[in-house]
Design a protein that fits this description.
- With about 70 residues, the chain is of the alpha+beta class.
- The protein has one domain.
- Helices cover about 40% and strands about 10% of the residues.
- The longest helix is centred in the middle third of the chain and has 20 residues.
- The radius of gyration is 13 Å and the shape is globular.
């Protein structure tokens, strides 16, 4: 399993600390990936129940993975 370096929460905090903004195309890409992940979960009958920026990990190319499925029902 690949190790992801940074959560979306930390990534956004780092941008804010450096007075930078996430380009709209990157933000849309992350959200699109998130919606796709949730759609797949819902299609197989699961609900994540703990969606937050700290549970979204990013790789070097800003591809996301949803983590912490401990509250999934």
């Amino acid at each position: 399993m690949p190790k992801y370096k940074i959560s979306l929460a930390k990534f956004m905090d780092d941008l804010e600390d450096n007075r930078q903004y996430l380009p709209i195309d990157k933000a849309c890409s992350i959200m699109s990936q998130m919606f796709e992940a949730l759609e797949i979960l819902h299609q197989v009958g699961y609900t994540h129940n703990d969606i937050k920026p700290g549970n979204i990990m990013l790789d070097d190319n800003l591809n996301m993975i949803l983590i912490d499925i401990g509250f999934t029902t």
